[in-house]
Amino acid sequence: IESNQGVALRGKRVLLLGAGGAVRGVIGPLLLREPAALMVVNRTHATAVELVAHYSAQHPVTAMTADQLVAGAQRFDVVINATSASLSGALPLPETASVFAPDALAYDMMYGKAPTVFLRWAAQHGAARICDGLGMLVEQAAESYVQWRGVLPPAAPVMAQLRAELLAS
Q1: SS (HEC) of the chain
Q2: What φ, ψ does residue 81 adopt, rounded to 5°?
Q3: pTM higher than 0.85 for the full model?
Q4: Residue 163: pLDDT above 80?
Q5: Which pLDDT value is given to residue 128?
Q6: Signed CA dihedral, 5, 10, 15, 18: sign only
Q7: What is the C-alpha separation between 115 and 113, in angstroms, rounded?
Q8: How confident is the model at residue 167 (pLDDT cuts 50, 70, 90)?
Protein backbone atom coordinates (compact mmCIF):
# COMPACT_ATOMS: atom_id res chain seq x y z
CA ILE A 1 0.00 0.00 0.00
CA GLU A 2 2.75 2.42 0.89
CA SER A 3 5.32 1.30 -1.68
CA ASN A 4 3.14 0.56 -4.68
CA GLN A 5 0.17 2.84 -4.07
CA GLY A 6 1.98 5.75 -2.43
CA VAL A 7 -0.46 5.81 0.49
CA ALA A 8 1.20 6.45 3.84
CA LEU A 9 -0.72 4.75 6.64
CA ARG A 10 0.58 6.89 9.49
CA GLY A 11 -2.28 8.94 10.93
CA LYS A 12 -4.87 7.35 8.62
CA ARG A 13 -8.13 5.65 9.54
CA VAL A 14 -7.99 2.06 8.28
CA LEU A 15 -10.87 -0.41 7.97
CA LEU A 16 -9.83 -4.05 7.79
CA LEU A 17 -12.53 -6.47 6.62
CA GLY A 18 -12.05 -10.01 7.88
CA ALA A 19 -10.33 -11.69 10.82
CA GLY A 20 -8.88 -14.85 9.29
CA GLY A 21 -5.37 -15.86 8.34
CA ALA A 22 -4.79 -13.01 5.88
CA VAL A 23 -5.72 -10.43 8.53
CA ARG A 24 -3.60 -12.16 11.15
CA GLY A 25 -0.68 -11.82 8.74
CA VAL A 26 -1.13 -8.10 8.03
CA ILE A 27 -2.54 -6.57 11.22
CA GLY A 28 0.84 -6.35 12.99
CA PRO A 29 2.65 -4.68 10.07
CA LEU A 30 -0.31 -2.33 9.53
CA LEU A 31 -0.25 -1.25 13.17
CA LEU A 32 3.52 -0.66 13.00
CA ARG A 33 2.78 2.02 10.37
CA GLU A 34 0.95 3.96 13.15
CA PRO A 35 -2.53 4.53 11.74
CA ALA A 36 -4.75 6.89 13.72
CA ALA A 37 -7.27 4.05 14.04
CA LEU A 38 -7.70 0.55 12.75
CA MET A 39 -11.17 -1.01 12.82
CA VAL A 40 -11.68 -4.73 12.21
CA VAL A 41 -15.07 -5.91 10.95
CA ASN A 42 -15.72 -9.60 10.55
CA ARG A 43 -18.77 -11.73 9.82
CA THR A 44 -18.27 -13.36 13.23
CA HIS A 45 -17.82 -10.46 15.63
CA ALA A 46 -16.36 -12.64 18.41
CA THR A 47 -13.47 -13.59 16.12
CA ALA A 48 -12.69 -9.93 15.47
CA VAL A 49 -12.87 -9.14 19.20
CA GLU A 50 -10.48 -12.01 19.97
CA LEU A 51 -8.06 -10.83 17.30
CA VAL A 52 -7.91 -7.17 18.38
CA ALA A 53 -7.51 -8.16 22.04
CA HIS A 54 -3.90 -9.10 21.23
CA TYR A 55 -3.13 -5.55 20.02
CA SER A 56 -5.55 -3.10 21.64
CA ALA A 57 -3.46 -2.41 24.76
CA GLN A 58 -0.68 -0.86 22.66
CA HIS A 59 -2.46 0.21 19.47
CA PRO A 60 -5.61 2.07 18.37
CA VAL A 61 -7.42 -1.04 17.11
CA THR A 62 -11.03 -2.03 17.77
CA ALA A 63 -13.54 -4.58 16.54
CA MET A 64 -16.91 -3.56 15.14
CA THR A 65 -19.91 -5.38 13.77
CA ALA A 66 -21.10 -4.64 10.24
CA ASP A 67 -24.25 -3.11 11.75
CA GLN A 68 -22.16 -0.75 13.90
CA LEU A 69 -20.16 0.19 10.83
CA VAL A 70 -23.31 1.08 8.87
CA ALA A 71 -24.98 2.89 11.79
CA GLY A 72 -21.86 4.80 12.80
CA ALA A 73 -21.35 6.40 9.39
CA GLN A 74 -17.59 6.39 9.91
CA ARG A 75 -15.30 7.18 7.00
CA PHE A 76 -11.93 5.53 6.37
CA ASP A 77 -8.88 6.54 4.36
CA VAL A 78 -7.98 2.94 3.53
CA VAL A 79 -10.43 0.03 3.33
CA ILE A 80 -8.84 -3.41 2.97
CA ASN A 81 -10.84 -6.48 2.02
CA ALA A 82 -9.09 -9.52 3.47
CA THR A 83 -12.13 -11.80 3.36
CA SER A 84 -12.81 -14.65 0.99
CA ALA A 85 -15.96 -12.92 -0.29
CA SER A 86 -14.30 -11.99 -3.58
CA LEU A 87 -13.83 -15.68 -4.38
CA SER A 88 -17.60 -16.11 -4.55
CA GLY A 89 -18.39 -12.71 -6.06
CA ALA A 90 -19.94 -11.42 -2.83
CA LEU A 91 -19.48 -8.13 -1.01
CA PRO A 92 -17.64 -8.38 2.33
CA LEU A 93 -19.82 -5.71 3.97
CA PRO A 94 -23.41 -4.49 3.66
CA GLU A 95 -24.13 -2.70 0.39
CA THR A 96 -25.58 0.19 2.42
CA ALA A 97 -22.25 0.90 4.09
CA SER A 98 -20.78 4.30 3.29
CA VAL A 99 -17.21 3.97 4.48
CA PHE A 100 -14.94 5.95 2.17
CA ALA A 101 -13.33 9.24 3.19
CA PRO A 102 -12.35 11.68 0.44
CA ASP A 103 -9.32 10.36 -1.48
CA ALA A 104 -9.82 6.87 0.05
CA LEU A 105 -8.08 3.76 -1.22
CA ALA A 106 -10.02 0.49 -1.51
CA TYR A 107 -7.65 -2.48 -1.50
CA ASP A 108 -8.71 -6.07 -2.13
CA MET A 109 -6.18 -8.74 -1.27
CA MET A 110 -7.62 -10.84 -4.09
CA TYR A 111 -6.45 -10.19 -7.63
CA GLY A 112 -7.47 -11.28 -11.07
CA LYS A 113 -8.05 -10.30 -14.66
CA ALA A 114 -10.80 -7.82 -13.75
CA PRO A 115 -11.59 -5.80 -10.63
CA THR A 116 -13.37 -7.80 -7.93
CA VAL A 117 -16.97 -7.15 -6.92
CA PHE A 118 -15.64 -5.29 -3.89
CA LEU A 119 -13.42 -3.03 -5.99
CA ARG A 120 -16.21 -2.28 -8.48
CA TRP A 121 -18.57 -1.50 -5.60
CA ALA A 122 -15.92 0.68 -3.91
CA ALA A 123 -15.36 2.70 -7.11
CA GLN A 124 -19.12 3.35 -7.31
CA HIS A 125 -19.45 4.25 -3.61
CA GLY A 126 -16.78 6.86 -3.02
CA ALA A 127 -13.35 5.24 -3.18
CA ALA A 128 -11.03 7.58 -5.07
CA ARG A 129 -8.63 4.73 -5.89
CA ILE A 130 -8.90 0.96 -6.10
CA CYS A 131 -6.19 -1.68 -6.07
CA ASP A 132 -6.07 -5.45 -6.02
CA GLY A 133 -3.63 -7.70 -4.19
CA LEU A 134 -1.24 -8.49 -7.03
CA GLY A 135 1.35 -6.13 -5.54
CA MET A 136 1.09 -7.90 -2.20
CA LEU A 137 1.77 -11.24 -3.87
CA VAL A 138 4.82 -9.89 -5.70
CA GLU A 139 6.20 -8.07 -2.65
CA GLN A 140 5.88 -11.23 -0.54
CA ALA A 141 7.82 -13.13 -3.20
CA ALA A 142 10.45 -10.38 -3.28
CA GLU A 143 10.90 -10.62 0.50
CA SER A 144 11.33 -14.38 0.19
CA TYR A 145 13.92 -13.79 -2.52
CA VAL A 146 15.83 -11.54 -0.11
CA GLN A 147 15.89 -14.36 2.43
CA TRP A 148 17.28 -16.84 -0.10
CA ARG A 149 19.50 -14.62 -2.24
CA GLY A 150 20.23 -11.53 -0.15
CA VAL A 151 19.00 -9.20 -2.90
CA LEU A 152 15.69 -7.35 -3.17
CA PRO A 153 14.48 -7.64 -6.76
CA PRO A 154 12.50 -4.76 -8.28
CA ALA A 155 8.77 -5.45 -7.96
CA ALA A 156 7.40 -3.08 -10.63
CA PRO A 157 8.55 -5.03 -13.71
CA VAL A 158 7.28 -8.30 -12.24
CA MET A 159 3.89 -6.76 -11.45
CA ALA A 160 3.66 -5.30 -14.95
CA GLN A 161 4.46 -8.66 -16.55
CA LEU A 162 2.00 -10.55 -14.33
CA ARG A 163 -0.73 -7.97 -14.99
CA ALA A 164 -0.14 -8.25 -18.74
CA GLU A 165 -0.33 -12.04 -18.53
CA LEU A 166 -3.54 -11.87 -16.48
CA LEU A 167 -5.15 -9.57 -19.01
CA ALA A 168 -4.03 -11.73 -21.93
CA SER A 169 -5.44 -14.93 -20.46
Answers
A1: CHHHHCCCCCCCEEEEECCCHHHHHHHHHHHHCCCCEEEEECCCHHHHHHHHHCCCCCCCEEEECHHHHHHHCCCEEEEEECCCHHHHCCCCCCCCCCCEEEEEEEEECCCCCCCCHHHHHHHHCCCCEEECCHHHHHHHHHHHHHHHHCCCCCHHHHHHHHHHHHHHC
A2: -90, 110
A3: yes
A4: no
A5: 96
A6: positive
A7: 7
A8: confident
